[in-house]
Amino acid sequence: MNEKLKRLDSNRLLAPKTYKQGMRTDAVIYADEKIEKLLETEAIEQIANVATLPGITGNALAMPDIHTGYGFPIGGVAAFDAQEGIISPGGVGYDINCGVRLLRTNLKKEVVQPKIKDLVYRLYSEIPLGVGSEGKIKLSRESHEKLLLKGSAWAVEHGYGTSQDIERTESDGRLDGADPSIISHKAYERGKQQQGTLGSGNHFLEVQTVDEIFDETAAQKFGLFKGQITVMIHTGSRGFGHQVCTDFLETMRRASNRYEIYLPDRELACAPFTSKEGLDYFAAMKAAANYAWANRQCLTHWTREVFMRIFTISPRDMQMDLVYDVAHNIAKLEEHVIDGKKKKFIVHRKGATRAFGPGHPELPEIFRETGQPVIIPGDMGRYSYLLLGTAQAMKETFGSTCHGAGRVMSRHEAIRRARGRSIAAELEKTGIIAKSAGRETLSEEMPEAYKNISNVIDVVCNSGISRKIARFKPIGVIKG
Fold first, then answer.
1. In what order do the strands lie in the sheet with 56-67?
2. pLDDT above 80 (res 52)
3. Is the Cα dihedral 403, 296, 94, 181 positive or negative?
4. CB 3.0–4.6 Å: which of 97, 278, 458, 465 could bond 393 by disulfide?
5. Are 337 and 356 in contact (CB under 8 A)?
6. For 76-132, what is each residue's pLDDT tens digit?
7. Are strands 400-401 and 353-354 parallel, antiparallel or unpaired?
8. DSSP state at residue 17
């Protein structure tokens, strides 16, 4: 154990303000004894660094899937006063609005399993994926700008989905205030042919079965039952969002100097939220977030088409409905109650998921009673989960929880350890058909490169910031 950390209870560690010079507040790390053994020293340093930034309110927070990132750790949450605080690209990440969506069907495992190889190969051929992949959609400058303003609605207007999809997407799949005029030419060039692409790395499309139900009442409300086939899609804003982040990092480095903001790590480059630099980044980030929501919406449409062809079934009979779509790399302007007073904060969630509790006014009516659905993907060999946000999360984490399993092995190390092995063959022996654009992708993403997702889920649920609803097991995976 890191001797400078203090254990608050069985699921929380504290890095007090004395942990590091310059900290303005404490940092809380959600970790039981199993997770604690896997914590990276550098990731702990990073969440302590976040606690030094101007305007931070409440604790700097690290979820149990924490690992080292750019500036902020992946798995980090921090809220900054909207008037006195900062905004930082490092608190969002390069893949702006990387997120995940869950689709349900009325198909059962016994119907899909005999055709799973055909299904995976057809999805692989129909879903554009891989490094630098180009999609079926070619955007003109005018249509690109409209997409950046409209998000998911742009995709639906062009025939990629339904209005119900929009209602079941976080923020209705669109952040107001995006400004296409401040996006660089290079970002437009990178984004114009990548709309509707899955990408590479940890991005995936998985065919899954509902393996376990923990709350029958809530599961029924979302149309889930044991043995059911579901689909999970995990991707973000592709090269477009990466370029937006790259463009603004240099702007923020200059701004940090101009506004005399002390940075214990130059990767924390930031600007006052109310400054021109801060507001410009926020508007560009919103454009990238909208790009990502449109992207996942287009991929959803093509996934539905593949299912209909493979199983010769109509949309009505298949009932391939969106359960929900969540972002987990984003900054949002939100109202939260601190010390009995409601104030506005710019909440950074990097590798962390919004988890608003029951009754929150930003939730659609269908989720007001239950709380927000939270989709947490694991690795491609074990499980993924559907959780719900809680009132405790609103009090303690600005309505936030984890976003996935979290890496315990670098990509280089995973490739080294996979030498001489066939990860695809190993997965097939366990009943999972995997197809990827490159052999190294499966090596980088092999299950042991990640924490056990069930351990991560236990921490957030035992600490009260999430509630378990269902568990999903992959049977088919495509990766870039």
1. 6-9, 12-15, 27-30, 56-67, 74-81, 341-350, 329-338
2. yes
3. negative
4. 465
5. no
6. 999 999 999 999 999 999 999 999 999 999 999 999 999 999 999 999 999 988 777
7. antiparallel
8. G
Mean pLDDT of the chain: 96
The answer to whether the beta carbons of residues 404 and 64 sit under 8 Å apart is no
Structure pTM?
A: 0.97
Cα(204)–Cα(236) distance, rounded to whole angstroms? 11
Q: What amino acid is encoded at 225 in this protein?
A: F
Q: What does the alpha-carbon distance between residue 271 and residue 45 come to, in Å, rounded to a whole number?
A: 21
- The answer to whether 403 is a known catalytic residue is yes
CA separation for the pair 60, 53 (Å, rounded):
10
Q: Which of these CATH numbers, 2.60.120.650, 3.90.1860.10, 3.30.300.30, 3.40.50.1970, describes 6-479?
A: 3.90.1860.10
Instruction: Choose the catalytic residue: 234, 328, 360, 403.
Output: 403
Classify residue 340 by burial, with Cβ atoms within 10 Å: 0-12, 13-18, 19+.
exposed
Which residues does residue 229 pair with via DSSP β-bridges, in sequence order?
A: 209
Structure token digits, residue 125: 């051929």
**What dihedral angle (degrees, nearest 10) is formed by the CA atoms of 334, 372, 337, 87?**
-30
DSSP string, 301-343: HHHHHHHHHHHT--HHHH--EEEEEEESEEEEEEEEEETTEEE
CA-angle at 374, arms to 285 and 249, nearest 5°: 20
pLDDT tens digits for range 359-418: 999 999 999 999 999 999 999 999 999 999 999 999 999 999 999 999 999 999 999 999
All residues at 6 or more sequence positions from 84 whose CB lies less than 8 Å from its CB, including other chains: 54, 55, 272
Cα–Cα distance measured from residue 265 to residue 61, given in angstroms and rounded to the nearest whole number: 18
Residues in contact with 128: Cβ distance below 8 Å, sequence separation at least 6, in sequence order:
134, 135, 136, 196, 197, 198
Q: Where are the domains of the chain?
A: 6-479
CA distance 431 to 416: 25
Q: What is the pLDDT at residue 439?
A: 77
Instruction: Return all residues near 189 (Cβ < 8 A) that are at least 6 apart.
Output: none
CA neighbor of 306 nearest in space, from 207, 225, 379? 207
Contact at 8 Å (CB) between 213 and 224? Answer: yes
